[in-house]
Automatic annotation (TrEMBL), chain A:
UniProt xrefs under InterPro entries: ABC-Tungstate_binding, PBP_domain
Domain PBP residues, every copy: 36-263
The protein's name: Extracellular solute-binding protein, family 1
Signal peptide: none
Pfam families, per the entry: PBP_like_2 (PF12849)
PANTHER family on file: EXTRACELLULAR TUNGSTATE BINDING PROTEIN
Coiled coil residues, start to end: none
UniProtKB/TrEMBL annotation, chain B:
InterPro entries referenced in this protein's UniProt entry, alphabetically: ABC_perm_TupB-like (IPR049783), MetI-like (IPR000515), MetI-like_sf (IPR035906)
Protein name: Binding-protein-dependent transport systems inner membrane component
Family: Belongs to the binding-protein-dependent transport system permease family.
Organism: Alkaliphilus metalliredigens (strain QYMF)
Domain of life, per lineage: Bacteria
Membrane topology: Multi-pass membrane protein
Entries under PROSITE patterns matching the protein: ABC_TM1
Length: 287, 230
């Protein structure tokens, strides 16, 4: 009796182990497959915000219809997206940290950077705004941040080297403040997780508008501050330098870029979100 | 391959530079996992022994339940603990979400069934015998329990080490209930997951090495104790 029970347990463990190994093997194969971009398939590294908002799911199938290029999307932080480009693991990058992107091109990891679209960051916080940011700072983000240093209200930072995090760090740098202390919480997670944490801790955080809008119905948080020119969030697209390895599909990357910058691509970007949120989540601005 | 070698080299340099943040993360990992394992042990070892030596109604069901709990997916534990302790949850007033305490609670839920299950399995064969001997010699219930723990110490130690292995390697639950807050709830596993998502493979490898060394150390202790026994 006891032996049989052990057998069942052992079999279960083995079964689970085999499934896990099988799945991870599959994942490895998938990765290999997507790494070896053939003529019609490209690998795009992008930030979580474009993926989470649903923009890419919305427009990429139309691109495939138009051009025959199939795009596989890896959604990571801007930091890792650029790193994947440097390592030659992806063909094209769609990110939102202009400074880091320009450096990427200067260091010859990418060919050329193009503006695609923008949206903006907003400061979100508890509906009753306990730190009185809305009244004290109006739409001045620097003033708002300097208030946090002097109050005990919690400010959550992405702390994950993402485009949003880089933007926030730049603001502190402009202020000459080194954010430290119990009030400054560095979460090291994606935008969605950090908004959820902000909601739990009744704190404040800097969010891209698209992610906030898509989560709004579950939150006790409001936009406390918006409209400061410093909160402008530009997205750029870069084809990875094809000299890195033979697997890079530069032609496919350029087809994607041209399509994104074309009248049709830009029009689709501008329309996205209007029916669901009553406003565009991304505003096209290719030159 | 080059990346792994380069990463390992820089990882070793980083470890030797005694980076305060890394050692803080290691310290918190040890604090959370050891506390969870110790609390779990004090409850689970007697429970496992009792489960093995006592007969009671529904015993088979309880045993099956413990076995099921042994393979509980950490993210589910994370989710349940989060829902219980979040602001709108029934235990939200305790305000422990996103603190090390919440991480310890989550890990206790994962570790406790493992220790109970292994102790139960080790006790049910030799346990009756030891219990009968103790009772023949006139030991009271407490003395019997102490004797059982003494006699079965290798099995109990193995149970605790296995439970500890679960705690130290766990990432899903502590990420959800702890939030991976820098300097506050960031432990080795959540740090590795985060660093990977940032493309900072070097630091991730450095912390991975520490994690492996710790596992090795703990298993060496177990091995040594078993050697001394035989």
């Amino acid at each position: 009796m006891e032996i049989r029970k052990w057998h069942v347990l052992l079999m279960t463990v083995l079964l689970v182990a085999m499934t896990v190994i099988g799945c991870s093997q599959g994942a490895i194969d998938d990765h290999k497959e997507s790494g070896q971009s053939t003529g019609n398939s490209i690998l795009l590294a992008t930030t979580t915000s474009t993926e989470n908002s649903g923009l890419l799911d919305d427009i990429l199938p139309i691109l495939t219809e138009d051009t025959g290029v199939e795009v596989k999307v890896v959604a990571v932080g801007t930091g890792q997206a650029l790193q994947m480009g440097k390592d030659g693991e992806v063909d094209v990058i769609l990110a939102h940290s202009k400074k880091a992107e320009d450096e990427f091109v200067q260091e010859d990891h990418g060919i050329q950077r193009f503006d695609v679209m923008y949206n903006d960051f907003v400061l979100i916080g508890p509906k009753d705004d306990p730190a009185d940011i809305g009244v004290l700072a109006k739409n001045d983000i620097l003033k708002a941040l300097s208030i946090f240093q002097n109050t005990e209200e919690t400010f959550l930072s992405r702390g994950d080297d993402s485009g949003t995090h880089k933007m926030e760090l730049q603001l502190w740098e402009t202020l000459g403040i080194d954010p430290k202390g119990r009030w400054y919480v560095s979460a090291g997670q994606g935008m969605g997780a950090v908004i959820q944490m902000t909601n739990e801790m009744l704190g404040y955080t800097l969010s891209d508008r698209a992610t906030y809008l898509s989560m709004k119905h579950n939150l006790d948080l409001d936009i406390i501050l918006e409209g400061d020119g410093m909160l402008f969030n530009q997205y750029g697209v870069i084809a990875v330098n094809p000299n890195k390895n033979v697997q890079i599909n530069y032609e496919g990357a350029m087809i994607l870029i041209e399509w994104l910058l074309s009248e049709k691509g830009q029009g689709l970007i501008g329309e996205f979100g209007q029916s669901e949120f009553g406003q565009s989540l991304f505003i096209p601005n290719a030159k | 391959m080059g990346q792994i070698l380069e990463g390992t080299k820089s990882a070793l340099m980083l470890l030797l530079s005694f980076d305060r943040e890394i050692y803080g993360i290691v310290g918190l990992s040890l604090y959370v996992t050891l506390t969870a394992s110790i609390i779990s042990s004090f409850v689970a070892v007697p429970l496992g022994i009792l489960l093995a030596v006592k007969d009671f109604p529904m015993k088979q069901f309880v045993v099956r339940f413990v076995y099921t709990m042994m393979s509980l997916p950490p993210v589910i534990v994370g989710l349940v603990i989060f829902l219980l302790f979040s602001r709108s949850g029934p235990l939200g007033v305790l305000r422990i979400i996103y603190t090390p305490t919440a991480m310890i609670v989550a890990q206790i839920c994962l570790v406790m069934p493992i220790i109970i299950g292994i102790v139960y399995n080790g006790t049910k064969e030799k346990g009756r015998e030891i219990q009968e001997v103790a009772e023949t010699l006139g030991a009271n219930k407490m003395q019997t329990l102490v004797l059982l723990i003494k006699e079965l110490r290798i099995n109990i130690f193995a149970a605790i080490v296995t439970g500890y292995g679960r705690a130290i390697s766990e990432v899903g639950a502590v990420m959800i209930v702890g939030g991976n807050i820098r300097g506050d709830t960031r432990v080795m596993t959540t740090a590795i997951a985060m660093l990977k998502s940032q493309g900072d493979y070097e630091t991730a490898i450095a912390i991975g090495i520490v994690l492996l060394l710790l596992s090795f150390l703990i298993n060496s202790i177990l091995y040594k104790l078993q050697q001394e026994e035989s």
